[in-house]
Amino acid sequence: MKPGIPKGTRDFTSKELQKRRYIISRLQSIFEKFCFQPLETPSFENLETLSGKYGEEGDRLIFKILNSGDFLSEVKKKNPNPEQWESKNITGSLSEKALRYDLTVPFARYIAMNYGQLTLPFKRYQIQPVWRADRPQKGRYREFYQCDADVVGSESLWHEVNFTLLYDQAFTELKIPVEIHLNNRKLLAAISEYAGIEDQLIDFTIALDKLDKIGLDKVLEEMSGKGISQNSLQKLIPIIKLSGSFPEKITQLKEILADIQIGQEGIKEMEFIYNSIQQTGLQSAEPVFNLTLARGLDYYTGTIYEVKAKNVSLGSIGGGGRYDNLTEIFGVKNISGVGISFGLDRICLVMEELNLFPESTRQNKQILFFNFGEKESLEALKLIQKLRINGIACDLYPDKAKLQKQFTYAEKNEIPFVAFYGETEIESQTLTVKNIQTGEQQIVPVNKVDEFFG
Questions:
Q1: Which of 75-79, 138-142, 384-388, 400-404 has the least mean pLDDT?
Q2: Domain with CATH 3.40.50.800 in the chain
Q3: CATH 1.20.1440.230 matches 364-453
């Protein structure tokens, strides 16, 4: 059988992992500067924990785990008539667990389970893989990492301001030019009320969220197909096409949604966030008021974010928002939360495309000691171990092979230095070091080697 891996998954080489770790280390540092605590949750959850939290489309993308044992017998027992063997009827018999779809719902479950022991507001960051049965394409995988930061137990809009500042600092440090797109689900609810489609809010937001991918005509076609009338569409089109600066859009919306209370609430929130970040000052990110941003997840209730890299055609590289009732489904009411996520895989693609990774991400071995035989290798290994203790990465070629073969190994593995520690060097307590790239060769006293490579 020819070996292979499932679609939408990848193997990572050493170079790729070094790049990913570079991004993760920067994000971890920034999360902790903003006083978030690390947290990890299991790779899989009870299916009932995840189901119904992501909307109809999201639920279809949940990877379900088959129960162990003879699950077919359970299906027959609970549904004796084969005509009842539709997926919706037998899913509970086949699967009780599922791979996590994101990190937010498991976090909400954690909050509900540990509510009495937590000091609120509780801030956590989490960097772990998630799984979605999506159609694989560039920048979209079935297994991928999310890097999340959330805070629960506070309704303060200062959290939204801080998350905007966090995004700005992160992408400034990674040197990625970005736009931070902002919107508010209260505004989307108000717009649906303005268009007379309050009962079709979900259909409206799901279609609207696809605007960047399929264009306005297709979005309107999808809305029409969901039963949204032409009269409502005519009211929606001018709002979808609304142009101008951030403050100009706020001014226009104040007039359009003047008689809709929830719309005025959303406008006040957007105004507060924008004015605060303007006075605090962003380093490099550009804030954009994007009224078509919907974030197709049902649990968002207030501010929503989406981060897009400039000069790259790759969709969003981050997103999130306010969720005021997610823990309620787990029996804990009145816990407001807000959080953001970084798309590690897409960030990596952007940095590769823009050539933003520093050379320092190549954490290769610094020195390869050549093998001159058993006696010399033992002496070399004694020296190697001292260097390792002093924080210098080095290795011994395992076999007494021709020098050319050992040179080739060093070159192919991009090891910058090779070291000769043969009989002559051992006797004189020196080390002959050669720079592979320049060809320069130096003799270094053994007691000075750690200084030479330090």
A1: 75-79
A2: 364-453
A3: no
Q: Is the pTM of this model over 0.85?
A: no
Over 70: is that where the pLDDT of 88 sits?
Answer: no
The per-residue pLDDT for range 245-294, each reduced to its tens digit, is 999 999 999 999 999 999 999 999 999 999 999 999 999 999 999 988 98
14-63+101-353 under CATH 3.20.20.150, yes or no: no
pLDDT score for 254: 93
Burial of residue 212 (number of CB atoms within 10 Å: 0-12, 13-18, 19+): middle
Where does residue 90 fall: left (phi above 0), alpha (psi -120 to 50 degrees), or beta otherwise? alpha
Look up residue 451 and give its DSSP letter: H
Q: If DSSP states are collapsed to H, E and C, what string results for 273-291? A: HHHHHHHHCCCCCEEEECC
Bigger pLDDT: 378 or 215?
378
Task: Provide CB contacts within 8 A for 389, sequence distance 6+.
Answer: none
Tokens of 324: 């005021």
Which position has the token pair 């957007």?
A: 270
Helix (H) or strand (E) holding 91: helix 87-94
Structure tokens at 320: 């999130």
Report d(CA 178, CA 307) in Å as an integer.
7
All CATH 3.30.930.10 domain ranges in the chain, comma separated? 14-63+101-353
Burial call 244-272: b when 16+ CB within 10 Å, e when fewer: eebeebbebbeebbeebebbbbbbebbbe
Residue 160 reports pLDDT greater than 60: yes
